Amino acid sequence: MFKRIKVIDNISGLQSFQLMRFTVFLIISVVFTKSHLTRSEIGSWEMFLFIAGLLSFFWVTGIIQSLLPLYHHNKTFRRFGDPGTGKSPEIFNAFLLLCFFSLLIFALGQSLKGSFSVFHFRGNVPFLNLLLLYILLSSPVCLIEYIYMLNNRSYRIFQYGLYTFSAQLVLVTTPILLGKDIIWSVYGLLIITAIRWIWLIILLRRYSEMKVSWEFMKEHLYLGLPLVIASLISGSAQYTDGVIVSAVYRDPAVFAWFRYGAKEFPLVLLLANGLSNAMLPEFSTRSSMKEALEKIKLKSKRLMHLLFPATMFIMLFTRWFYPRLFNPEFQKSADVFLIYTLLIVPRLVFPQTIVVGRKKTNVSLIVAIIEISLNIPLSLLMIKWGYNIVGVALATFIVYCIEKAILIGYVWKKMKIKPSEYIPLKVYGIYCFLLSILFILIDHRIIDIH
To answer: Model's pTM, two decimal places?
Structure first.
């Protein structure tokens, strides 16, 4: 058993955790489409998760990503910390920041209850009170896997994910399998979130020094706020695109079609994000830069050999498996998903990891402003030109490629780090060429496994 545990490092532990999270929500989606639930009821569940993510992902991302390079490499506790305790005041103060933002969103939501509207039905946000409670509880628990990572307890990340996501699957799907209403699945989601809170408190007592430091929180926010704002204004494909689709079509059914298609191939998104976040602390000091660049180049090359062939295989069968995995009503979602699989092209290069790891978060903010200024008008143009919801996905792909090109240029010109130092260019170029050819053949139905 111990030999098997040792093969899990921080990168693979975080990647496996994120993969488990996606897999469980995918299984839940499949169960719902095969159950007695109507498409509108499924749309309400998707809207619940969508709004919860939309109101929290940006500040959770910013706080956690800025914590990683600050851990043991910050001015505050270099001067005032007590390294002999073996516990981290940085973790505790990051927890306080997450709680503060959670309470802020909860309070704002309570005060604006009657002003929410979805698809022009004022006050009809699905399960609004439960939604605000879920945001309040779920955001701080995102710290758990990173506490394990920062303390080199990678196998604990895997165990935590296995236990809690298995419980989540049971708590959310069992009511539906018993013929109950969708609200009972929401209750199940809240129960597992409460269990994660208990887990978080135990970890804070074990690994954090419970010392409030306004100085560190100011340092943390100084580094993290550009990331928070960058995430807020640019979002990610699912959030920005979801807002555009909901605003243009104002139809829960169309929104459900889009949401079921607007999912990147999970192995790409989750393994790439896991690698990026796990590598952030290694770029925090100049002395480790060379080793970190070599490591991320090697790790990304391995991901390319795994993920590009897997993505091409999935593309071949997308139009075949979508109506069978869900139901025939979701055939339209297949074309959206097909576009989203192309996001492997920008995902598997990591200039953003170098930029954030070196604490150049203002650059991330500038690039995010450029991204959002392109994404929204381009998406609306694609819809106007007749591409409909597929055009929204295509606009996202184009903008993501532009974003990565800008970051690569910055790292090269300003930080004097050539792309070849952290990108396996030959392997990457060959795979991108093959992927492009395959997409064209599938899109023009020259290859059509239907």
So the answer is: 0.76
